Amino acid sequence: MHCPACNHADTKVVDSRLSTDGASVRRRRACEACEFRFSTLEEIEILGLTVVKRDGRRESYAREKLVRGLEKSLEKRPYTVQDFQQLVHKIERDIQKTGHGELTSRDIGELVIKHLRGFDKVAYIRFASVYRSFGDLHTFEDELRKLSSAKKSKSVASRRSAKSRVRSST
Ligand SMILES: [Zn+2]
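^ thats the input. predicted complex w/ zinc ion below
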């Protein structure tokens, strides 16, 4: 890998660390010419997977779409960058476990719902309401009820500390 500072062709790996879920490796590197230090992140990329959309169109699986969908449902919710990455890895691991070369966008949606449920209730409801707008209203209502009773017991102070946690991790 070329040095981003001086473009020298040789950089050496100083340290490499596997993420706790084993799905990515972060490597610290140093340029052999100018000693500039930087790090690289190696992640699993799913290849050869086709997603069949609801209207029948097919496209290659793209992590960016999963990430965008998750970010949208997690808007203004407290979470750390690290937790978010782990969430993406877990969902992608499940996608890979299906073992098919083809998945429907609905299949992926169900996997996202499954994982968001334990990650963030509000995001779970937001996402589930989009994917199951007609199929599973009872779950939606149950979750809404649980959420509104949980809200009452949460103080403003705990929300504030959650917000500052997000800020410090970005
Ligand atoms: Zn350099």
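The chain has six helices and six strands.
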